[in-house]
From TrEMBL, chains A, B:
<dbReference type="Pfam" id="PF20906">
    <property type="entry name" value="S-Me-THD_C"/>
</dbReference>
<dbReference type="InterPro" id="IPR010318">
    <property type="entry name" value="S-Me-THD_N"/>
</dbReference>
<dbReference type="Pfam" id="PF06032">
    <property type="entry name" value="S-Me-THD_N"/>
</dbReference>
<dbReference type="InterPro" id="IPR048350">
    <property type="entry name" value="S-Me-THD-like_C"/>
</dbReference>
<dbReference type="InterPro" id="IPR024071">
    <property type="entry name" value="S-Me-THD_C_sf"/>
</dbReference>
<protein>
    <submittedName>
        <fullName>DUF917 domain-containing protein</fullName>
    </submittedName>
</protein>
<feature type="domain" description="S-Me-THD-like C-terminal">
    <location>
        <begin position="165"/>
        <end position="358"/>
    </location>
</feature>
<dbReference type="InterPro" id="IPR027479">
    <property type="entry name" value="S-Me-THD_N_sf"/>
</dbReference>
<feature type="domain" description="S-Me-THD N-terminal">
    <location>
        <begin position="7"/>
        <end position="162"/>
    </location>
</feature>
Amino acid sequence: MRIGLSDTHDFARGAAFLGTGGGGDPYIGRLLLEQALKKSPPTPVLKVDELDDDALVVPIAGMGAPTVIVEKILGFSEGERVLRALEKRLGRKATAIMSAEIGGLNALYPVAMAAHLGLPVVDADGMGRAFPELQMVSFNIFGQRSAPLAMTDENGDVVLIESDDNLRVERLARPIVVPMGGLCMMALYPMSGRAVKECAIRDTLSLALGIGRAIGQARKEQREPFESLFAHLRTTEYYRHCRLLFDGKIVDLKRETLRGWAIGHAIIEDFSGQRRLEVTFRNEFLRARADGRTVAIVPDLISILDRETAEPITTENLKYGQRVKVVGASVPPIMRSERALQVWGPRAFGFDEPFVPIEAAL
Amino acid sequence: MRIGLSDTHDFARGAAFLGTGGGGDPYIGRLLLEQALKKSPPTPVLKVDELDDDALVVPIAGMGAPTVIVEKILGFSEGERVLRALEKRLGRKATAIMSAEIGGLNALYPVAMAAHLGLPVVDADGMGRAFPELQMVSFNIFGQRSAPLAMTDENGDVVLIESDDNLRVERLARPIVVPMGGLCMMALYPMSGRAVKECAIRDTLSLALGIGRAIGQARKEQREPFESLFAHLRTTEYYRHCRLLFDGKIVDLKRETLRGWAIGHAIIEDFSGQRRLEVTFRNEFLRARADGRTVAIVPDLISILDRETAEPITTENLKYGQRVKVVGASVPPIMRSERALQVWGPRAFGFDEPFVPIEAAL
């Protein structure tokens, strides 16, 4: 499988859906991907099982507030610099690139970097969606180390972090985002092919492409895009429990950039003015409550989409008065295990309630 | 020359005087130095001119709020870890250790580390006193790079910063101090012997020892310690313009730990209740104003000492009601040059007034 120029819109749209509001504006990522693919052949995509056990796979990801990404574009030089810094530290060249999260910019940037460098990208990621902290990743859940981790910014400065504790790495890296201008690029969780086979969320790059295509194709054929989206999700093994959570317009929006995150909530009212849905976010949409009752919660997916086109809307692009549909979907069992929920379940985000799968929350 | 167990009290006292309130509690540094010297022979001290041109000299320094140092002791493992990390990055072993600032803990710790590692320490530093930011150092004024810079904490994590801009290094390193627990150890400004000859403030380790001895000896012989201190300073080439700025008790003290610094001011009132001196600090004492008129200002030295024993008092040990004498002293021309004043003159600290040498401020 390869990702070429004709795939970029679909891939960006699907990555935005899986990004559940976060992961950075996919528009910027799409432009970068198109820029890379105009100069390079389509990016080869490797299935996890195709990896050599001793391959060196390096995830590349941006860190910062999505609200900054729309104002400041990081190009290829940042990704290359941070990859070279990590390779130098490891004394070995990367054999493949991977996404740490299959949401927004962080889904697209590694594919663009892979094309730019002439390396393959792995059809997998570490979240199966997007999450706001760097220990919230399946690699961590399975005991992989995020360090050595290299981070860089537009000034060309490089910071290398060494630690055996992923939560401490998050705490050390996060405050550096601010002097790095609110957004930086990092290479982290360098892993063997063997480790990727054990701990990655598989086939999520294909998943993003499929979701984006389902919406795009319906639009092209003037079919109802949400029906097409749901029909496609129901063909997947793990994301098939999906449904429309709400249909209405945004009547209240609170959003602030705090300690490098975009934090807040959106209130959506239905067109009868009778019911309200509250969606809480920290970069990503984390919980949806209809009239005070939780209808979907992390790690299950909550996406807010334009109610006509089914184009996913990121946190920083939410606007007062927008007419939207809110969609929820289930995630793979690897993301709902006890160990996983300890890292990215409701309580990890400060919600005082247990995880209830979307298929049971009706 | 060597520094042995019989020198530790004098050296710590002199380093506290030159620290002008900052550089970290010298008491902690003295304990560490004594611990090292109980197991190792006296630390050999090299004059700058004794260095080989191609020696690799590595300054080691703590960064953080002095208020934290009294609650948390960093031992030898932190200094060794950070030195080894830098050596690994440079592909070369250090041939000598140096102080970045000859104030408080940061004067003592490198001497203790040198004894512990069996390396010589250089009779010089980069400030001729203490300053609160890492670009405020003569090495920077002469164009040396602070990076690669390694920092570590009690958890064993290591952060390596690469940058060609020393101000950006300060901005990247400073916020990491907070997740590192308010205090960390760093190895920075790795330099050749040739560079040290060009840009270090010379003989400041001897200077600290001499100042500490002058006070200690007077006490032992029951002479007036301030007279002995002034008599000694007047024998030095550069610090001979010295005088008593004020004699009184602390009647007001404002001190907060802000962004990794101890920031505030002390108001000292004379015993007639007629006159007041305001000493402003950010880790170090920066400006002394008597009745609204500046009588001493950075980079000249301002030290607050116990009015009976002439023991220097650090910022974090100032107390309401303390009876103190405030002493001012001149610094070497290398510290008062135009280039130097741009980096650590009054305006670099936000004071809207020019530098006036203490000998002219009368």
